[in-house]
Amino acid sequence: MSKLHCRCGNVIRTEEQDLSYAAALVPDRLYNPMADQIFAQIASFAVACKTGTGTAEWTAAKSPYPEVVEELFRYEVLGKAFLENSREVYQCKRCGRIHIETAEPNHFRSFLPESDASSSLY
Ligand SMILES: [Zn+2]
User: What are 31-50's pLDDT values in tens digits?
Assistant: First the structure.
């Protein structure tokens, strides 16, 4: 999804990184499974490192660019777990409405602040 249409008529861009009006939300019931998923990936990599064998196979199985281990962890391990378990959240800069992604990807429910809708949450 690259744009979100707010009820006030504002079009919210969602395709960029580090947006001042965007956030991510991890539902409580998904937090522990996400942490377990990340820990399992780190633990399996640690085992591959400790044994001295299998790190190349481990990284090759996780990424098309296995030579960049730091990026692999950032995007393929941490990023994948976070993307699979988090929901996107956007605040409309015009009306302050909060748009939270539902369990169905790219579907949002909106909530209008009771007061001070002009202030930014993030
Ligand atoms: Zn709006």
Answer: 999 999 889 888 888 887 88
Interval between CA 118 and ligand 1 midpoint (Å): 10
Distance between CA atoms of residues 15 and 17, nearest Å: 7
Which residues fall within 8 angstroms of residue 7, CB to CB, at 6 or more apart? 95, 97, 110
Q: What distance in angstroms lies between residue 119's CA and the mean position of ligand 1's atoms?
A: 12
Q: Taking the domains of the chain in order of start, what are their residue ranges?
A: 30-85, 88-122
Percent of the chain clearing pLDDT 90 (strictly above): 45
d(CA 77, CA 22): 22
